[in-house]
Specification:
Number of strands: 16
Number of domains: 1
Helix content: under 10%
Strand order of the largest sheet: 1-2-3-4-5-8-9-10-11-12-13-16
Oligomer: single chain
Largest sheet: 12 strands, antiparallel, barrel
Number of helices: 1
CATH architecture: Beta Barrel
Radius of gyration: 25 Å
Length: about 290
Amino acid sequence: MKKTIYAIAILATMALSLNAQEEPAKTWKTGGAGSLAFSQVSLSNWAAGGENSISGNLMLNLFANYKKGNSTWDNTLGFGYGTMKQGDQGWRKTDDKIELASKYGRNASKNWYYSALANFKTQMTTGYKYSNDPDVPNEEISNFMVPAYLNLALGMDYKPNDNFSMFISPLSGKVTFVNDTLFSTTYGLDAGEKIRTEFGAYMKIAYKKDIMENVNFSTKIDLFSNYLDKPQNLDVNWEVLITMKINKYLSANLSTTLIYDNDILFGDDPTKLSPEIQFKEVLGIGLSYNF
């Protein structure tokens, strides 16, 4: 009997020792990429004409993804800021973005997940509509939380691999925040309101792939339809990023953003305002780092 007890004790000790030596399953995957690009032009007695200029652009994309058993939790942070000075003009921003996204899922079948998503977007600093007349001041048109957008959605997420996902939600809420009522009507709110809520359907598609050596392509598109007001007019936010790695610390980045929102109106005549397609393109060559 004693020999049996001793044998069990020895086996238990060996099992505990082997278990302690095993590394715990890796449930978190984190990383990101950042880039900093500069450009500068200096002219002196230049017969062909032109103006001195200097510009800079910072881009940062981080992720923290969790996967264990039937659960997944994907989190991303996107940050971009650019500024430029040309001639005698003051510094003007060329890019300004903060975006936080979080998506939790529970496996429903092979590639499908029951999912909940939250997405928040705004900018950090004041944006202006610049005047060409030196006697007319520039018009402030945006600032931190002017506007800001929050999407909350419940639905299904299709993830056949790490490069592609398609989230479909028939139950989604979109909240538009305007921290200063002076800009309420500019962003589709009624005069004097700071918050507008919409209820509808939402879809988010994301794809990324190395299209050739040291060249990565990624894109994502968000679509929202308001059930209660002109559901045929989709809100669109489509982003594309191409990263071309030159060496360990140098890269070139090309990013584009296309936005259409039926509630954001443009025009110089207040009686003839209409929604328009918004488009932004940023090209930068400079320092980069992946982690």
